[in-house]
Amino acid sequence: MPVNKITNDLLTMKNLPDKTVERLSQYRRSLNNQLVKGKTHIFSHEIANLLHITPVQVRRDIMLIGYSGTLRKGYDIKEMVDLIGKIIDTEEGQKIAVIGMGNLGKAFIHYLQEKRSKLNIVAAFDINPEKINKTYAGVKCYHFDQLVEIVRSENISIGIITTPPEVVSQIADKLNEAGIKGILNFTPKPLSAREGIYLEEYDMITSLEKVAYFVKS
Ligand code: ATP
After folding, report:
1. At 88, which helix (H) or strand (E)?
2. Which domains does the chain have, with CATH numbers?
3. Residue nearest to ligand 1 atom 1, measured at CA
4. How far is the CA of 187 from the centre of ligand 1 (A)?
5. Which helix (H) or strand (E) covers residue 56, if one does?
6. Quick one: which atom of ligand 1 is closest to the CA of 170?
7. Per-residue model confidence as pLDDT tens digits over 8-43
8. 41: CA distance to ligand 1 center in Å?
């Protein structure tokens, strides 16, 4: 189905399963790589191979977003990339704040600023006077006390927490007060859910210990 025939309802779909959204992000990156290589169409089994998942899974996800390819040529890669963009991005992009400019926060800013995407880190926050008013990969670091003011004035919708775990709950409360819509918690301490905020947690230490457990002799 051509992209312009997809209804607005589908494009603003909010209720896709978490895992589908994760895979859409992965599909888009793989498809973009294919476009760069000059490929224009792709079959579900080829996408599945690239991501090491099953073709059934790929077809199910693509059906969920209301797209279909042709039997002969497969999916039009450019159309699919555009459609996924319409589903997971916003037109004007989304603004992000990073709280905690230690090693992890700095690495995150440097990494994300290099990827051209609709996700822009526009402010960093810390309490260490040596870091305040410094600029990291083009992003200014403010004092944490200015968080509510800046999140509101800049219309920041996502907060990434890279502070020590002891303060994570306090940070999330402030982000909540500021009206943030999504939090990515990079500390090893889980946060409780806050109404109206989408919470994603990634604990590197748990992931690493899991790998270590399975490889220990
Ligand atoms: P560094 O040694 O440069 O501080 P680090 O990676 O060892 O780096 P951590 O102790 O993990 O630092 O802390 C991460 C960052 O979080 C630090 O820059 C610290 O100043 C900051 N931080 C700590 N508490 C808060 C807080 N309440 N609000 C905002 N930032 C905080």
Report:
1. helix 77-88
2. 3-88 (1.10.10.10), 94-206 (3.40.50.720)
3. 102
4. 11
5. helix 55-64
6. 27
7. 455 445 688 989 999 999 999 999 999 999 999 999
8. 47
